[in-house]
Fold these 2 entries.
Entry 1:
Amino acid sequence: MKTTIIYSTRYGFTEEVAVKLKEKIQDQVTLISVDDASSADIDNVDYIIFGCPVYAGKLRNNMIDFMNQNKVKLADKKVGMYVSSLNEFKTASYLEQSLSKGLINQLSAYVYSGYSIDFDKVKLVERLAVKTMMNKEDEVYMLNEEALDKLIDKMKINLEN
Ligand SMILES: Cc1cc2nc3c(=O)[nH]c(=O)nc-3n(C[C@H](O)[C@H](O)[C@H](O)COP(=O)(O)O)c2cc1C
């Protein structure tokens, strides 16, 4: 069985999650940045997993555009998603802000994958906004491995090989 993971990332965390997810999946996995992906990349695959971070309350536009452009093809695929953000409890609402109901319903599972913040890389003007989103005791890095296992289970990926 073939899986393709298509990720969007600004600072690299969501790509790192894709690599971790690949390690957990038995059988053939292709990793591809959404910027390099075309609709041919989702032909002839059994599972597609989208990975995307949240910026300013929604998924990145390159991911939203790709998913919208390929809505019809995705309808007969098994599709999952993981979302990187600072706020696990807003995952559903971030998806609702970004994707149509139809696309959300096409996801057989979605999970919260954690976050990374490197304040040296974040633009000065954005730092304060990010700091106000974090609690004082928050770490600057949290990869939610359990959620990745859950995603694989829910999509039944390793069972069907
Ligand atoms: C400028 C900026 C804006 C962000 N906006 C949000 C947001 O609205 N909600 C949220 O939960 N996380 C927000 N985040 C946190 C990112 O989603 C998180 O750092 C994520 O891990 C980034 O992934 P990436 O390294 O793959 O780009 C923001 C981060 C930055 C730097």
Entry 2:
Amino acid sequence: MNIPKTSFPRVVIIGGGFAGVALAKKLAKQEVQVVLIDKHNYHTFQPLLYQVSTGGLEPDSIAYPIRKVLQNFPNFYFRLANVDEIDVENERVKTNIGDLDFDYLVVASGSATNYFGNTEIEKNSMAMKTIPQSLNLRSLILENFEDALLTSDLHERNALMNFVIVGGGPTGVELAGALAEIKKGILPKDYPDLDTRMAQIHIIQSGDRILKGMSDKASQKAEDFLEKLGVNIWKNVRVKGYDGKTVTTNTDLTFNAETVVWAAGVKGETIKGLDAEDFITRGNRIEVNQFSQVKGFNNIFAVGDVACMKTEDFPNGLPMMAQPAIQQGEQLGDNLLELIEEKPMKPFEYKDKGAMATIGRNKAVVDLKRFKFQGVFAWYVWMFVHLFFLIGFRNRMVVFVNWVYNYIRFDREARLIIRPFKKNFKS
Ligand SMILES: Cc1cc2nc3c(=O)[nH]c(=O)nc-3n(C[C@H](O)[C@H](O)[C@H](O)COP(=O)(O)OP(=O)(O)OC[C@H]3O[C@@H](n4cnc5c(N)ncnc54)[C@H](O)[C@@H]3O)c2cc1C
């Protein structure tokens, strides 16, 4: 991999997501050699992926080059590679571009979509975990409307304009809200020769409320907002299958839809070598102690979504969200330096900063520790927080300008089929 050997201990980080980047920044200008490996050469701001899928933002405004994050740090190396295996015995990672020995290893590989073993749904539905997947979804949505214009078969036309979102968590809710706004504000102008009132947006939720990780008040308000926007919410319904045409459920309900978005779960993106039952716990996550150490190792750590750190408040592990990932990455940066100097490490304490979701224009729900609020103010808070955590001044400016433009013009100009998508072809 062409990484020189130095007298500094080598820290290898797998993954340049929220956790990996937070950790790398902490190790900047310290007496360690840091090698960050990621299969993408950019960091993705996943909370705004749904805006790429729905033409509100261009993909480059929510991506940031990892090399640019590291460019002013001495002793830092980035390699664009997929880590295939971790050889824990020999303290080595094996990648598609070669092997690399480590003194300290941090697995920050995030999470993957969880289909709970249903391969039919995996093959036929759309996921929204990466920028290429969001671009696929954007293309499919737009292509479906183009096709709907051409068919005289009413059943087919309705299926092309039906959108089923499986999962009523923040991703499902935000996507549904954005699609409903497109239906209301953009489709009638773009497709005057199509009865776009027939377009249907459904959320299917297995539990008895949407946004189940948030307060009852937030769930109820989000449901009210979505219903006002014309989104159909089906609660206590579990999706059983999707053959590419029809969604079947555990009830009599079926949905004919060409677009099904699977937002019903994620699981830890584990890597061979650390994926044995001994290491893995609920949600396919690597169990770690309060110092982020993997069971049985002093020098192998996991942080972010892939790590399951159980605490008194979170007995099933910290939530798979950006804040735990950032905080764990930062704390591990400090702890690694302590460990190298043979000083005691500090146990991790999660500072819960709350949760939020937006449903659309002027509509959001925010649960902070002390305050819970919904509506216009919540929407401003949601926007501010997302702008604040985006990496890069340019990205912040571009997103801000886009949002102002979209707000004033009731528009989403990135509704472009740049890279046509054929269903059943997975990139
Ligand atoms: C659509 C969506 C919306 C979300 N909305 C919110 C939200 O509103 N608020 C919130 O707090 N959280 C949200 N999340 C969750 C949040 O994005 C994650 O919790 C967070 O990204 C976890 O950070 P991480 O560093 O653990 O992993 P990630 O940010 O996923 O980064 C993992 C990195 O590892 C790399 N990688 C993985 N495997 C390998 C390998 N084998 N070799 C090399 N590289 C590898 C990946 O390319 C990636 O860059 C959302 C997630 C999604 C998908």
